[in-house]
Amino acid sequence: MSTDLDELTGLLNRGLAGDAAASERAFALVYAEMRRCAQRQMRGQHDALTLSPTVLVNEAYLKLSAGAARSLNDRGHFYSLAARAMRQVLLDHQRANQVIKRGGGVAHVELTERLFDAGGETLDYFALEQALTALRRIDPRAATVVDWHFFAGLNFLQIADLLQVSDKTARRDWDSARAFLLMQLSAG
């Protein structure tokens, strides 16, 4: 999400203090960014006919606006919630469309800069979620980088700012997380 983080932080803080107009503005900014991120993620996905970026973002936005964002601690917490909402919608969608208990026609994917390149096939979000859970146990910061970059659309400078690390450290976390996730997805 490339929205100016300082503007978003101010709006979120005013919204938490009771300013309804600030809350609406913050969610409008985030909604537009989430939609752009969803379009990038879903480009070339086989499932695009049944789950459009608009539907993905609308469902994630509903999860966010249903109350979780009313108890925000900071921007990092907000982006974690946004990434989790997007992941949950993708998992719910895959669960609803899966016809076979294991495998259900889901293709093996290669991790790339975009985290995956499914070659027009559907990414197995269940396997990705399991791999992210394993990564969270051994390197929580790297898992957060994946959440924020892949699901929330933040760039490495924004992630570094939120984590209070250098952008090179954020990039290294991304690279090591990708390698770990590739290993986990290949083994599964």
Task: Name some characteristics of this structure.
188 residues, mainly alpha, 8 helices
Describe the structure.
The protein is an all-alpha fold. The protein has one domain (5-187). It has 8 helices and no strands. Helix 1 (5-16) packs across helix 2 (20-42), helix 5 (125-138) packs antiparallel against helix 6 (140-151) and helix 6 (140-151) packs across helix 8 (167-187). The protein is globular, with a radius of gyration of 16 Å.
Topology order in helix (H) and strand (E) letters:
HHHHHHHH
Give helix % range: 55-70%
Total helical segments: 8
Write down the domain tally.
1
- Tell me the Rg in angstroms: 16 Å
The number of distinct β-strands equals 0
Calculate the mean pLDDT score and round it.
Answer: 77
Poorly predicted residue ranges: none
Largest sheet: none
What structural category arises from helix and sheet content? Answer: mainly alpha
Q: What is the overall shape? A: globular
Percentage beta strand: under 5%
Separation, N- and C-terminal Cα atoms: 31 Å
Task: Describe how the helices and strands are arranged.
Elements: H1 5-16, H2 20-42, H3 53-65, H4 75-97, H5 125-138, H6 140-151, H7 156-163, H8 167-187
Helix pairs in contact: 1-2, 2-3, 3-4, 4-6, 5-6, 5-8, 6-8, 7-8
Task: Offer a concise description of the structure.
67% of the residues lie in helices and 0% in strands. The protein has 188 residues and is an all-alpha fold. Helix 3 (53-65) crosses helix 4 (75-97), helix 4 (75-97) crosses helix 6 (140-151) and helix 5 (125-138) runs antiparallel to helix 6 (140-151).
